[in-house]
Amino acid sequence: MADLRSLFKAYDIRGLVPEQLDDEIARAIGYGFGRFVGGRRLVVGRDMRPSGEGLAAAFIEGARAAGSDVVVLGLVSTDLLYFASGHLDAPGAMFTASHNPAAYNGIKLCGPGASPVGQDTGLAEVRRVAEAVLEGREQLGPPRGTVEEADLLEAYAAHVRSFVDLGALAPLSVVADTANGMGGLVVPRVFAGLPFRLRVLYPELDGTFPNHPADPIQPENLRDLQAAVVADGADVGLAFDGDADRVFLVDERAEPVSGSLTTALVARAVLAKHPGATVLHNVICSRVVPETILACGGRPVRTRVGHSFIKQVMAETGAVFGGEHSGHYYFKDNYRADSGLIAALLVLEELSKAGQPLSALLAPLRRTWTSGEVNTEVADPQAVVEAVAEHYGAMGAAVDRLDGVTVDLGDWWFNVRPSNTEPLLRLNLESSVVDEGPKRLEEVLGVVRGLAKGQEQP
Fold first, then answer.
1. What is the dihedral of CA 398, 400, 405, 408, to 10 degrees?
2. Which of 86, 92, 207, 256 is buried most deeply by CB count within 10 Å?
């Protein structure tokens, strides 16, 4: 019996190649997705991972067997795939494992107009059909759909540039570390014709990631960018992940800028263009984010972590922008999809207008201590989350369960939640008393580890 549960996550498909994902499975998933979208035309793209070409080709075979015509985009970033889905009003499939190591690959699916496809909005149905194919309960006939190729890179680049006032941009010096990922293709094209002096680190597309992992949330993967910013005397550094839908910033002093602070900065830029609008932030974001949104006259709304959840809440609330601590930034006028490049250009527009260094622009926002994401392997992540909620609830702390468990203890708070993509427990903590932050982190880690150990006892 085929069991794809370990491959299908909350909002995408991701696993080791070929142990969990191979051409046969990709073909079955393509058939399942073609069936799910009713055989309508769909777009397919892939990142630079060596396994992507074969997996995408097999997926296309399956989708065509389900009656879907396929528009092949070739090598693209994930946000370009979402743009294509919106621009052509077609469902889409992007082959990528984002920031995961080279041995992984996966598929991000979306509906027409880049609408979310997650566990509760289609992934479960795609999995059910794919398992039926793999078990021999359903047979794939010959391909019925057609195949065509399309190049939307220039249209995408113009779309990204449309989010800023080009006349307001100053001749800033920018370093972008694309980490051998898809940023090497899309970043230079978006920046073409803009007044910035751009230097790109590791622009060669190489899914083996020969220089460093394409995971900019990890501080060690920012070192080359930090050194280049200092050496060039650059105004800002941009670090992209493998499929180039996420971005992290480094200021002119080579200090990393958290996803929360970037969210606050982009929210300010967006609210200047859309006064009084609703802006989303996930449960992990710093309290600085909703405080900034309110100070700019906006309406903050807190959401679960993950793109399919955020896109759904954007549709429900009419939010113009949503930000995540993990470097994902969503825009209503981008089909509610995320784009690190749109966020980066909005920051550069803010920096151009401010006429001061990025560190000075961010200084008022850097008023808390945050732990960053601390990951712990435990036997049963959900059981530990329940134990944490019970432990701190019994202490009288404010506890909410929007996503994992968030515990509010006044001048400090933390969130513990199971990863949606990996077998990990994720902890994030923030303290408004900066000097007490590290002590609070060790305290909570001690409690979590103790409760995890207790869960393992017979």
1. -30
2. 92
Using alpha carbons only, give the angle 181, 186, 188 rounded to the nearest 5 degrees.
105
Could you tell me the domains of the chain? Answer: 13-151 (3.40.120.10), 155-253 (3.40.120.10), 259-365 (3.40.120.10), 369-456 (3.30.310.50)
Question: Alpha-carbon distance 400 to 303, whole Å?
Answer: 12
Contact 416, 402 (CB under 8 A): no
pLDDT at 457 over 90: no
User: Would you call 98 a catalytic residue per the annotation?
Assistant: yes
Q: Using CA atoms, how far apart are residues 230 and 252, in angstroms rounded to an integer?
A: 7
pLDDT of residue 458: 44
Quote the longest CA-to-CA distance of the chain: 67
Q: Which two tokens stand for residue 116?
A: 């979310």
Bond before 18 cis per omega within 30 degrees: yes
pLDDT, tens only, 276-296: 999 999 999 999 999 999 999
Q: Convert the pLDDT of each residue in 308-344 to its tens digit.
A: 789 889 999 999 999 999 999 999 999 999 999 999 9
The contacts of residue 413 (CB under 8 Å, 6+ apart) are 287, 406, 407, 429, 430
Among residues 51, 68, 85, 98, which one is catalytic? 98
Q: Which amino acid is at 27?
A: R
Burial of 210 (0-12, 13-18, 19+ CB in 10 A): exposed
Which three-class secondary structure string do you get for the chain?
Answer: CCCCCCCECCCCEEEECCCCCCHHHHHHHHHHHHHHCCCCCEEEEECCCCCHHHHHHHHHHHHHHCCCCEEEEEECCHHHHHHHHHHHCCCEEEECCCCCCCCEEEEEEEEHHHEECCHHHHHHHHHHHHHHHHCCCCCCCCCCCCEEECCCHHHHHHHHHCCCCHHHCCCCEEEEECCCCCHHHHHHHHHCCCCCEEEEECCCCCCCCCCCCCCCCCHHHHHHHHHHHHHHCCCEEEEECCCCCCEEEECCCCCEECHHHHHHHHHHHHHHHCCCCEEEEECCCCCHHHHHHHHCCCEEEEECCCHHHHHHHHHHHCCCEEECCCCCEEEHHHCCEECHHHHHHHHHHHHHHHCCCHHHHHHHHCCCEECCCEEECCCCHHHHHHHHHHHHHHCCCEEECCCCEEEECCCEEEEEEECCCCCCEEEEEEECCHHHHHHHHHHHHHHHHHHHHHHHCC
For range 205-227, the mean pLDDT: 97
